[in-house]
Design goal:
Helices cover 70% and strands 0% of the residues. The chain has 69 residues and is an all-alpha fold. It has one domain (8-63). The chain is rod-shaped.
């Protein structure tokens, strides 16, 4: 998020903020490597949760008596 200061005393900072904002408009918002990084991060998070989910489902399944045919 860029804040553009309209105060005349900080004209250099205002120009810098506007140029940063314009640069953000012409470049893609989410680069490809960032999307791959986020995907890998989400995958690792799911892999951390997976053993807990499997253990919980096995424990819940074992607690119910098996149905006899």
């Amino acid at each position: 998020m860029y804040v553009i200061n309209l105060d005349k005393s900080n004209s250099k900072e205002t120009v810098y903020a506007v140029s940063e904002l314009a640069e953000g408009l012409f470049t893609p918002t989410i680069p490809r490597h960032y999307r791959i990084y986020k995907f890998a991060e989400n995958l690792l998070n799911w892999l951390q949760i997976l053993p807990i989910v499997l253990c919980a489902s096995v424990c819940v399944g074992a607690s119910f008596p098996k149905r006899r045919p």
